[in-house]
Structure formats: C-alpha cells, structure tokens
Fold each of these.
Amino acid sequence: TQLLEQSPQFLSIQEGENLTVYCNSSSVFSSLQWYRQEPGEGPVLLVTVVTGGEVKKLKRLTFQFGDARKDSSLHITAAQPGDTGLYLCAGGSQGNLIFGKGTKLSVKP
Amino acid sequence: GAGVSQSPRYKVAKRGQDVALRCDPISGHVSLFWYQQALGQGPEFLTYFQNEAQLDKSGLPSDRFFAERPEGSVSTLKIQRTQQEDSAVYLCASSLARTSGSQKTQYFGPGTRLLVL
C-alpha cells in the first residue's frame, strides 16, 4: 500500500516567517502534486513535480522532488496571512491520487 | 462558472436514510473521480469513471455506496442506509484524461458536506 506522510500536521507562524512542509513515502511515485485547500472548498492544484531532483518555484513557494522520487518539500518564504490553509501532497497511482493527511498552516498577522 | 460544481453543498441525514450527491464536471472532461474526505484527513479515492464506464470502484467502502454516470457527464454518488461513519466531505474531480500528461490534472469541486445524525 502506498502511503504519503506529511509533517508537520499543524503549523502556526507569524507573518514574515519562513516554513517548510514535508511529504514522505516509502514508495516511488511517477509524480507528486501539491494542493492547497481552504475551508469549504475543494483542493486547488499548486504544482506537479515529475523529475527526481526537480525544483519548481511559484512566487514565494518553492517545491522540491527528492532524487529518488519518494519525497517532496514545500518551502514558503515570508509567509502571509493569505497563505493560511490546508496543504496536501498527492502521489499519482494508476491515474488515481493518493493524498497525505495534510499540513494545516495558520499565518497570523 | 466553468468549474466542477456539486450539490447539495450541505446535507444532514438521519441514520438509515438514503442520500444522493450530484457532481457536474467541467464540460468535455472524460474522467471523473469521487473522493471522501473525513475531518482532519486528506481525500481518499472512492471511484473513477471514464465517460460512462465505471472503471475502478476499489475505494468504495461498502456495498451501500453506489455511483453512476449514465450519459458520461453528470455523476451521482448514492449512499444507502447511511451510518454515522459516513459523515464526511464528498469531493468530485474531473480531468480531460486519466493518464496523459497535463491532461490528467484533476480539478476539484467544492464538495458536499454530509452529516449523518
């Protein structure tokens, strides 16, 4: 069974701080995706990483895929209150997505 | 709008009642997925359609759960004899294709929050 473990589960920080969220698995995934989900809404895709060692940047967000394609990280620089939400990583498995439990981020002004 | 829509947004059911949840995917999207998201958890796969064919229902938790997509567009997830453990958010997602590069990107609806009392 393929599982994705995310850490930390909860994160509460002040505006302006940096943070990193981790997504780890014992299985190799062909791709990993990061989503952000706000209360009462469905997950919204932020990025897809496909190649081992790949780094993608989306404004203040930096995503990295591990060399072995088993883990990924999301780094946010100078967090803002608008970054508050549930961050989910998901791995592709035969077309379906396997999600981690998510990291609930709260950024206080 | 042009996104995935779901109805109802909220549903309260008494234990033992049947419920039907509707999903309108993005027009032209071939693939449709249902996920269940329990409180504090990530979404878990329930079932997958390619057009009207249900190709994977391995995630359905019991035979009380049934999904259909008779004309290859709108889909309905039905739960019979609801139990308290069925309380969750039910998410629908659609994609242009299932396995072809960027076309497999899944777009999620807002979900239906089901509470079984």
Amino acid sequence: NAGVTQTPKFRVLKTGQSMTLLCAQDMNHEYMYWYRQDPGMGLRLIHYSVGEGTTAKGEVPDGYNVSRLKKQNFLLGLESAAPSQTSVYFCASSYADSDTEAFFGQGTRLTVV
Amino acid sequence: GNSVTQMEGPVTLSEEAFLTINCTYTATGYPSLFWYVQYPGEGLQLLLKATKADDKGSNKGFEATYRKETTSFHLEKGSVQVSDSAVYFCAPRDSGGSNYKLTFGKGTLLTVNP
C-alpha cells in the first residue's frame, strides 16, 4: 500500500520558473492538503480540497495554485517561483471522519535560486 | 475554529529520562486529538490519538489523556530512547461540518542523547 506519494522529492528552480508538484493517494480519501514547512514556523496550510473538483485557500495561498481533477490526485503549481517559496512541501490526505488521522507524504524539498 | 498551544522546544534529554510535552487547545466543538511525530527527513505520521474525554491514547511507550475540563492533551513517556529524537506535533481536529480542518501546533523538537 503506497499511501501518499509526492513527486518530485527534490527540485531546484530559478526565480521565475514554474513547476507542478504532484500528490497521489491510494486510500480513497476525500480530503487532501498542501502544507509548507519552514524552520521555526511549523506547518502552514497552502490550499486544501474536500472533494474531487473542489479546492479552497488555506493560510498562505499567494503564489500557488492547485487542482483536483481526480479524487486521488492533488496538484500544487508555482507559476513564477520566488526565493521566498524555498521550503519543504508536504501533501496530506484524510477521510472525512474526524476520528481518523491524516496521512502525509515524504515531502518535496524545493529550492528557488 | 481550533487553535493549539504547544510547548516550544528544543527539548534535550538524556536516555531513560521522563518526557512531558504540554499541549492545550481551544475549540468551538468537541475535537478529536492527535499527536504526530516527524522523524528527520520524513513526513508526519500518527503517534497516538484520543477521540473523547478521558480517553488515553498510547503507542511506543508514549501516552496522552484527553482532558476536556482543562482542554489539554499532554504527551508523556516514562523513559525516552535515542530513537525518539524527532519533532512532535499536537493536532486537534474539528468534528461536524468543519471536520476538514486540521490544526497543528508549531512542533516540539526533542533530542535524546545517549
């Protein structure tokens, strides 16, 4: 059982370049999330989705876009990367049941130079 | 919505020492409570959970009790090991219509020395 898979695991971008991070889950979870983790800042929610075809803004959405065309996939796009977007990005997914935990991917370490 | 206040680290202990990481939360409803652990270079994973008042979650020697009257969910372990070195996150989860909301504390870095 793969769980939550993120690709790529590492990436270096130049300022102004674009890229897409892919998150795939095989647990039939309704909810999916994108977080960024920076030193001393904990996890900050970028965007989330409560179902196929729906997305919503989180705490720090500026500079990012997302899409959830299929239930199992949640894509995070950076249209024009900036050094401030250097971070570790985590995808998570969960069932709608509040008694259940979220499952996290292994993270994508992104450096924007 | 929920918010969570978690003891900030870093916390440095010697092997076999007793560990407590405090966590208090505010909630409009009756959340489920989770502790997650993040080992170096990895994503978060569930450590333990409790879904109703007075429940005790436990795993790998760690324990936490859902205290509704004090809105707390403190993490404890009687004897830590070097392998417990990680970042720990307290996380209440809303119930009802807001159950998509996952709230995380800022994390507590634990380092256990031999």
Amino acid sequence: DIQMTQSPASLSASLEEIVTITCQASQDIGNWLAWYQQKPGKSPQLLIYGATSLADGVPSRFSGSRSGTQYSLKISRLQVEDPGIYYCLQGYSAPYTFGAGTKLELK
Amino acid sequence: QVTLKESGPGMLQPSQTLSLTCTFSGTSLSTSNMGLSWLRQPSGKGLEWLASIWNNDNYYNPSLRSRLTISKETSKNQVLLKFTSMEPADTATYYCAWISPYYYDGTYYYVMDAWGQGASVTVSS
C-alpha cells in the first residue's frame, strides 16, 4: 500500500496568514493527488485534483504544488471560513489512501 | 449537479451484516468513466477507502476484501455495499462518493468530487 505522510497534524494561524500543509507519498504517484477540506459534521469537499488543479468553485487562495513525491496545499490568505481538517488522497493505485489529516484552527 | 444520499440501519449487533444503499441523482452509472466509491470515517479519526464500482468493474480495499461486496442497481440509481461480520471496530460514518473524470494537463484524473452526507453506523451488543 502507498503511505501518505501528512504534516503537520495540527496548526493554528491568524487571519490573512499563509498556511502550508504537506503530504509525502511513499512512492511515485505522479499527479494523482487530491486535497479535501472537511468541516465538523460535514462530508469532505474537493479542493484540488491532479496535484495542482483547482476544483470548480474553490477560492483562488487555495493552491496545490508538487516536488517529486512531496505535495503541498497552500492557503495564501487564511479566511474565517477556512478552519477545518484537510486531507490528501492518493488516487494512483488501490487501495486509495489518505493522509492522517491536518486540523487547521484560527489563532 | 450530482447529489448522493446514504441509507442504512443505524445500529447493528456484532457478527451481523451491514447493508448500505447510496442513492444518487443528477448522473448515471451508465455513463462511461463514471463510478462510485464507499468510504468510512470513525468518529474523530481519518478516512478509509473501502470499495469502488467503476466502468462495470469492482475494486476493493484488500485489507477488507473478504468482507465487502459492492453492487449496483442502475435502473434505481443506487449502489449497494454489504459488509459482513461487523464488529464494534467497524463503528463509523459511512460515505458514498461519486467518481468523475477530469481532463488536466494531458491526463484524465478520476476524482471523488461529490460526497453524500454520510450514514452513521454503530455496532454494539
């Protein structure tokens, strides 16, 4: 199975701050990486697919990048609606595996 | 717009079989390169992919393969999941998610882009 190591497990940031979350894949997964946001009591919402492509309706302050087998999600200017848990997902090969999640809070 | 809704028993006893139904609208499994996945999330924990049905093929998480069966009823716009030998550790919210193709940078990516609200399942005696 492909392991997705996500960091940090949690972080606290201020409004308008830049936030970066990373996922390290245990092997090459190409651009088969998606990012999701989950708010309490809700289902996950797609943010990024293909490692860098923004899903429809997602604000442009969210962006994805890749360097080898390391993937990053950046929120350029944190907004009040952005706290939640963020997950990466590799869709390269079954079993499809998620990172453990990053809990983002407002400071 | 694709919408999905999970339905299930809510609670069951250890060793019983869980039967879940995902009813969807706004799309069809008859369309090529579309599919549906089942996933779960124990309370306060992360997400786990269970199974997918895509282009008339079924895919399972190997760690749970012996206990899972995914099937579809195309005319009813439903996908079913059966999960045998349930135990308390299987207590979780179970989600279904639609798989859509996205063409980007020369490649089709198959992405779980719409999720149901989730069905809570508790296994307890």
Amino acid sequence: AQSVTQLDSQVPVFEEAPVELRCNYSSSVSVYLFWYVQYPNQGLQLLLKYLSGSTLVKGINGFEAEFNKSQTSFHLRKPSVHISDTAEYFCAVRSEGGSEKLVFGKGTKLTVNP
Amino acid sequence: EAQVTQNPRYLITVTGKKLTVTCSQNMNHEYMSWYRQDPGLGLRQIYYSMNVEVTDKGDVPEGYKVSRKEKRNFPLILESPSPNQTSLYFCASSLGRLGSQYFGPGTRLTVL
C-alpha cells in the first residue's frame, strides 16, 4: 500500500521569498504523483501532476515540482510567493497498477506574510 | 460551466437518522470519488467508482454506502450516522484514473 508524508504541517514565509513544500511517498510499485491546493473555504484544485517523462513538472500559478525516484520525493517549489498563495497544499499518490485509490498527505498550510 | 455540485452544503443531524449527500458532475467523467477531510488528517478516500455500477472501497468506508446508477451522479449514504462522521465531505470526478480531479465545494456535516 502506498502512503504520503508531508514533512511540514505549517510553513510561514514572507512575500517574494522562495518556498519549498516537502512530500515523500512510500510505494512498492511505480506511482503517479499530484499536488493540490485548497484556498480557504474552497474545494481542492489541481496544481500539477507527474505521470511520466521529465521529472521536473510545471504547474499553475508559477509552481513546479521535481520527482526524485531514488529519494521517493516530490517537493513543490515556487521561486517567489505572493500573499494570494496562502492556502493548504496537499500531496497525493496513486499506484501505477492495481489499486485505484488516491492517497493524500495530511497537508501543509502555507502562510505568506507581507 | 464544467462543475461538480454537492447538496446540501451544510447539514446538522442527529445520531441514527439516515441521510444522503448528493453529488453530480456535468463533464461525462467516468471516475468519481468521495473524501472526508478532518483537521490534521488531510483527505481520506471513502469510496470511489470507475464507472456506472462499478464501485470500490477507499481507506475509510465503514459507515458509508454509495451507488452509481447513472454516470453523472454518485450519492453518499449514511444509513445510521454517528458523531465520528462529523466532517467536511468532498466529491470529485475525473475523466479517467489519471485525469485531473475536479472537486465539489464540500458538504459540512455535523452529527449530534
């Protein structure tokens, strides 16, 4: 069975600073990886996903993530954050074969301060 | 407009009173799913459906039922709700198992 660990439950940063939200996964088979964002009082929205190919994936709102198979990680980065990036971010994993389940991490609350 | 709708958005009920939360999507998606979100636990998958009449358990199916009689609808049924089912529930759909999931606005359920 797969699992996801988001190493930081809260990340405070100042506006225009870079940010990295960390995600590690565990799976005995190949995986597909996703990052979702949840703005206050809203549903989730897909930021980006890794299915295959280039390990550097670019998403919406200037975010990108790098898949590292040897370290079983899929960290999310943005070079310069805005106040509007304040939200909760979820990493999720699905196995390449077998189970159709999508497993989410517990989330990281990103707070961007002026 | 492509969307996933859920009803009701808010519900307060009492232990043991059967309830149904509806979910409908207008994108002709095959894959639909229900999640619950609890503080500190993230989202946990309750049930999912890969197509009409095809459903399977997620990680926390106990106390819930689902049905998929039509492609667009995927209701979540709580036959005998208990206080530990107080949570924020999300329905989601995608074109296939690797497609981008579209989430509904959420249903906040309180069971007294």
